[in-house]
Design a protein that fits this description.
The chain is an all-alpha fold and 227 residues long. The chain has 10 helices and 2 strands. The longest helix is centred in the C-terminal third of the chain and has 31 residues. The N and C termini lie far apart (52 Å).
């Protein structure tokens, strides 16, 4: 097929894409692992930061604000380089995978903290007062009353963060993590057909995000009872 004199077959070699697909998909488990671990770290640290950010004590909210501002204001790739190439200067050596876990986890925590804070603030103050009347302490109220409702509010933006992490894992190829994009680059360099391989990996990332969006819809239905 020709478009403006350009043969589309030259842009995307279907045969090469099919042949290389198993090799490229060999990086999928690592992509998902880095994404899930990074998101897990981000969820835990993000909630802690959100609670600290909303505290009245400056010893809590000031460090949280600085951390969030720093992480949101620095490129993810630069932070990965600091962890993987910079820390060895002071005697701390991380494997590429560990650096990726920490990089995506610590970075995503800043965004998750703001999402959690907004979700927590969206819950009516009367919920806290009602829980207090039932003799629930702060942590019981948070766990049994507030978080289930806040989770429903936070699901869509948290899903967006997770999809951003999945796509950003391609940066881990720079520090030699054997994920999807790194596998793609190997084939692209070997076959001298970057266009085909980059289109292929773009379609794979897109497919992953479609699945994540479907899971998001299921989760929203599950937590709709808390509205």
């Amino acid at each position: 097929m020709n478009v403006n004199g350009l043969d589309l077959a030259e842009l995307f070699d279907v045969e090469l894409a099919i042949e290389s697909l198993p090799f490229v998909l060999g990086g999928l488990p690592m992509t998902l692992l880095v994404s899930v671990v990074g998101m897990g770290i981000g969820l835990v640290l993000g909630l802690i930061l959100a609670l600290a950010r909303g505290a009245n004590n400056p010893l809590w909210y000031l460090p949280a604000r600085v951390y969030i501002s720093f992480m949101r204001g620095t490129p993810m790739l630069v932070f990965l380089f600091i962890l993987y190439f910079g820390l060895p200067v002071i005697g701390i050596e991380l494997t590429a995978i560990t650096a990726a876990y920490l990089g995506f986890g610590l970075n995503s925590a800043a965004y998750i903290a703001e999402i959690d804070r907004s979700a927590l603030n969206s819950i009516d103050q009367g919920q806290w007062e009602s829980a207090k009347a039932l003799n629930l302490n702060y942590w019981q109220t948070l766990r049994k009353v507030i978080l289930p409702q806040a989770t429903r509010v936070a699901i869509p933006p948290l899903t967006n963060v997770f999809m951003d992490i999945v796509k950003a894992t391609s940066l881990a190829a720079v520090i030699t993590v054997p994920e999807l994009f790194q596998k793609t680059q190997i084939v692209a360099g070997r076959e001298f057909d970057s266009m085909t391989m980059y289109i292929l990996v773009a379609l794979i990332y897109w497919s992953i995000c479609i699945v994540i969006s479907f899971i998001q819809e299921r989760l929203e239905i599950r937590y709709s009872k808390f509205l």
